[in-house]
Protein: Zn-dependent hydrolase
Organism: Bradyrhizobium commune
Amino acid sequence: MATQPLINAGRLWNRLMALAEIGATPAGGVNRQALSDGEIAAWRRVIGWGLDAGLTPSTDAAGNLFLTLAGRDRAAPPLLLGSHLDSQPTGGKFDGAAGVMAALEATVSLAEQGDRPARDLIVVAWMNEEGSRFAPGMMGSEAFAGERDMAAIRVARDADGISVGEALDRLHAAFPDLPHRSLGFAVDAYLELHIEQGPLLEAAVRTIGVVTGIQGKKTFQVVVEGAEGHAGTLAQQERRDALAAFARIATALHEEIGSIDPDIKFTIGRLSVQPNAPSVVPSRIIFSIDLRHPDNSVLDAAGVRITALCGEHAPPCSVAVTPLVDAPSNAFDPRLRELIAQAAREQEFPATDILSAAGHDARHLAKVCPSAMVFIPCRDGASHVEHEWAEPDHVAAGASVLAQVLRELAFALTPFAGKTRGN
Amino acid sequence: MATQPLINAGRLWNRLMALAEIGATPAGGVNRQALSDGEIAAWRRVIGWGLDAGLTPSTDAAGNLFLTLAGRDRAAPPLLLGSHLDSQPTGGKFDGAAGVMAALEATVSLAEQGDRPARDLIVVAWMNEEGSRFAPGMMGSEAFAGERDMAAIRVARDADGISVGEALDRLHAAFPDLPHRSLGFAVDAYLELHIEQGPLLEAAVRTIGVVTGIQGKKTFQVVVEGAEGHAGTLAQQERRDALAAFARIATALHEEIGSIDPDIKFTIGRLSVQPNAPSVVPSRIIFSIDLRHPDNSVLDAAGVRITALCGEHAPPCSVAVTPLVDAPSNAFDPRLRELIAQAAREQEFPATDILSAAGHDARHLAKVCPSAMVFIPCRDGASHVEHEWAEPDHVAAGASVLAQVLRELAFALTPFAGKTRGN
């Protein structure tokens, strides 16, 4: 166990709670959607805390926020650690925010110790992880990793018709003095702490989850087209009722796809009806599908069946299924996982390997540098809900494990990624 | 056939088209919802046309608009004729507006003839017939007929949280000089022209529909309550997914209720999802049901099955079914129907008896005075759609039949309703 604390647990908790005031909902949750006024306010607060500790803020074309602690070799690829500050519309205090604040706390505590790290340490808050305002999510980390083009990202629009490009320009205009880094740069290693968003750590009474990888995910947008008509006059057999077709499709999907095996996760989370009036037969339904599974072959087969079932149950309406996200499952860097497990052992926190059921920005960083994640439990496994909760002790434990791994990497004379390549 | 025209068909058509400019949609339809700025603008135009012909405008606590042509006996119960000026969000140029403009044209033409009628003639535009902004519809005529209390009407809210009371006060504030009549007054007889909103007249090549009555209608609001959760982590078997429950309910309802017999009309037209985010299991679905049938016993039995099917298919979610409208089918006044049929015969317009599949304000007037309706065809039976269309000749024919019946009642020495009671 470390002889002296690696972080200031009280400060971390207080800052996390202070951050949760921005976008706070009456039911105790957080509504701080990507590129919103709330996220701009959160940036101001986080930048302020970074400046207090001598960290230098910057951004990039994708609206990611960076806070840099300068190392001895400014030219060496930096260590990157963080998560995201945006939330679901009825989200909680911890999803994303805990990871950014733990990364900031680990870095600030290290800076306060006075030793200059061998290379830059950069705390990051990725743009639009959630994808609730602008779909699909993880825009910032995907752009950083070179997987999605900024031109394509900028044209996505929210429900009010505002584009990502407009919202991004507005964010940047709110911080006119913030330096812009080029989009995507060489990184030595990436670390991310997150609440589990599932019940496994709590059930196993483990404080630290050493994340082995992330289950695969596919998302789709489906448009069902029928024909409008008067609810009181158009004969039932002459209708092309888009909502009736949707109900058949959704029932078939939930029955077949939802019961493939105990590991499948199938969700229709968003839906819109046109014209959405009580006495008009609906002409168009647009809905989202979120599909996840740890086994890529199961995921691919389910994706094929989704398209087939939509086609089978739509008539007399027509249907168009558009894939949005196709992210296969991945495995995190084994040596980073071992460093996390070792830190948990030394600090005497009960730990276990765990597969991430939810997607995270680390999925995209893993394609450009060695990456890993630390999970902490959340009450009842509940996340994306306003009563989402993590115990202060668990937040502190996770941040302390993160801080230990960070120190081992920060003061190593050889770059971590370089060692990987050398081995 | 009348020796000289009873109406000015060109003026009627031009005014109907001018009215359609208010709230015009790019696709050629009309979006002029109840108590909106569009409806206020429509009032201004219609009031102006009434004033030009010597009609006196007034309103009441329910936001109904009246235009009165004074008769010889101001104390005698007036003849009332009209329809509504509000539309569906993607409605057409004729639903409601054709009835108000035909009533205005018949009254203005009569006034121009110079003979003063025996009793007042009042053109009316009822408040919120459609029910698309504030549910349920027909608020103005129900309040007028004493069937619904203004206090209950005023608390209904639109999707933006604006109450009927607030919107009504805003409407009245826009017309500070308009006199207020007391809500609900004795009426001698009520006449309403409307497009059929169905395909029967067109298919039978009839210009005039003598409406025998209105099919019965029930509406419900259904709330399905589940539990929110993370789409990527919450196990399928532990979910209480409100959208999955809704899909099962809607499929069962469309299958069973939608196939009771060829006369049934079953529609789920409006639906909202909470929190409506792609990666959150939906916690709550609220949807509307619109059910219609000419036979009250079939309607009642279907209503019972709707509640039962919701209960059967909701678990593990809970469900609450709230009846909103329960309007049995009704028959219009036989003597007024004969006057309409006779006018059509004399003017040599092909006519037929027809049951109204859609609901109309006349349903509520029929409870307080002898009432009847004149239908005209609409292309392909399409209504509540932006391409809704009625031929100029058919609009003119309907208005001319309406004008002839109006003249027979307006100059009769004995009140029409009085005769009914006397017989």
About this structure: Chain B is about 35% helix and 20% strand. The CA atoms of residues 260 and 298 of chain B lie 9 Å apart. The mean pLDDT of chain B is 95. Chain B touches chain A through 67 residues (CB under 8 Å).
